[in-house]
């Protein structure tokens, strides 16, 4: 199982995927907001979303778990 981690400290602005959804490498899975900028977080591999560890408006630190993939 692969993990997607937060690339920076910020707030979860939107979650672009659902559990069970197939994604391709490079697809945007979450958008973070930091200092009024929107930062997309992309999938680093093809796979199926197994779980989502955050909710919209959650605060995350760099390195926090956002979601997991089944390979």
TrEMBL record:
Keywords: Biotin
Pfam families (alphabetical): Biotin_lipoyl
InterPro entries (alphabetical): Biotin_Carboxyl_Carrier/Decarb (IPR050709), Biotin_lipoyl (IPR000089), Single_hybrid_motif (IPR011053)
Domain of life: Bacteria
CDD domains named in the record: biotinyl_domain
Domain Lipoyl-binding: 1-70
Name of the protein: Biotin/lipoyl-binding carrier protein
The organism of origin for this protein: Sporosarcina jeotgali
């Amino acid at each position: 199982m692969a993990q997607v981690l937060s690339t920076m400290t910020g707030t979860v602005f939107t979650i672009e995927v659902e559990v069970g959804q197939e994604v391709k490498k490079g697809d945007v899975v979450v958008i973070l907001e930091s200092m009024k900028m929107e930062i997309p977080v992309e999938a680093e591999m093809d796979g199926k979303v197994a779980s989502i560890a955050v909710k919209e408006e959650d605060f995350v630190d760099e390195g926090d778990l956002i979601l997991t993939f089944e390979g």
